[in-house]
Write a structure and sequence with these properties.
alpha+beta; Beta-Lactamase; 2 domains; 5-stranded antiparallel β-sheet; 7 helices; 12 strands
Length: 326
């Protein structure tokens, strides 16, 4: 038997530790510091969340604000055409009826009002029919297919998420073309990107609604409260949108409507940070992340929260959403 010297043993030990590290990094054990995900994983979560948020908000708006189909269609078009997200504004949400007529298509407005029932992918899959089956029989879900990417002009794999809007017998959808797997992301990085893209899309959409559907400030506030009140995301439903005006008044706070309309300018967290002032300053300087300590409504415990905030275009309001550190 060949004798193993000390140098070989050290190499073997180092190799074993490397294998253990790789295994740990690729195991989704709930630890946000080690669970690694691809950009496709992140994009899948982003389109699912933004589509669900917009579909949920539209459903509430259609329940109380707009009952006429034409008014609803104009509302959808104004919101979705503005609410672009991801790099180069490649992300968008489309809206279709369950009888296969396009309502809103930001990337190709010429489709609006036309029948899409015959649309297939590169291999002949009837993608619109399958989307309708998903929303009618399940309510929401993913569909994968091969489609020509307008950016590359190549047939590439695409994943789309669709969600029903029951009050209109319509559905919302959004998709992405698959990208290389690197770089890998932690759960926390994915969540940060999710709240960023979600806030950006919602801010742009609400800005368009103010420009086209709001006649006074009270009407605008009521519209935002209706649109945002039932939107929740993340597995534990801790994700939501809040709106604060630049003088420090809380405008929309879905988990605790009792504080809507209150002056929060001088609110400090437990570390002495004037968090509302910090959020406003961040939004006024072009938007971005801001961290503070806040109560997690799901656990009633104080945690470090990292928010992404953006100014609603044309208004002295910020909209934000955040994630809690584990």
């Amino acid at each position: 038997m060949k004798k193993v010297n000390q140098k070989d043993m050290l190499k073997l030990a180092a190799y074993s530790l490397l294998l253990l590290f790789i295994s740990a990094c690729n195991k989704d054990d709930g630890n946000p510091a080690v669970a690694l995900y691809t950009q496709n994983d992140a994009n899948k979560m982003i389109v699912q969340t933004i589509t669900t948020n917009i579909g949920t908000g539209f459903n509430d708006i259609f329940d109380t604000w707009y009952t006429d189909s034409l008014d609803r269609a104009i509302f959808c078009q104004d919101f979705t055409h503005a609410a672009r997200f991801m790099d180069h504004e490649s992300g968008y949400v489309f809206v279709e009826s369950v009888n296969a007529y396009n309502i809103a298509h930001p990337a190709n407005p010429a489709l609006e009002g036309t029948s899409t029932i015959g649309q297939t992918d590169a291999s002949g899959k009837k993608i619109v029919e399958e989307m309708i089956d998903i929303v009618e029989f399940i309510g929401f879900g993913f569909l994968e297919y091969d489609f020509t990417n307008p950016a590359s002009e190549l047939v590439e794999k695409k994943t789309t998420f669709v969600k029903s809007i029951p009050n209109a017998s319509w559905y919302a959808g959004s998709g992405f073309y698959h990208s290389p797997d690197s770089p890998l992301l932690t759960q926390h990085q994915m969540n940060e990107e999710l709240v960023k893209q979600s806030v950006i899309a919602m801010a742009k959409g609400i800005g368009a609604l103010y420009a086209n559907h709001v006649s006074d400030s009270l009407q605008g506030v009521e519209l935002m409260r209706t649109l945002l009140r039932h939107i929740r995301f993340f597995d534990n439903q801790s994700g939501y949108f809040y709106v604060i005006d630049f003088s420090g008044y809380n405008v929309v706070q879905p988990p605790d409507p009792s504080i809507q309309g209150t002056d929060e300018w001088d609110i400090q967290d437990s570390r002495g940070n004037y968090l509302v002032q910090g959020l406003i300053e961040t939004a006024m300087n072009g938007g971005g992340y801001y961290s503070y300590y806040w109560i997690d409504y799901q656990t009633n415990e104080e945690k470090l929260k990292t928010a992404y905030v953006a100014q609603i275009p044309g208004k002295d309001y910020l909209i934000g959403s955040g994630i809690y550190s584990q």
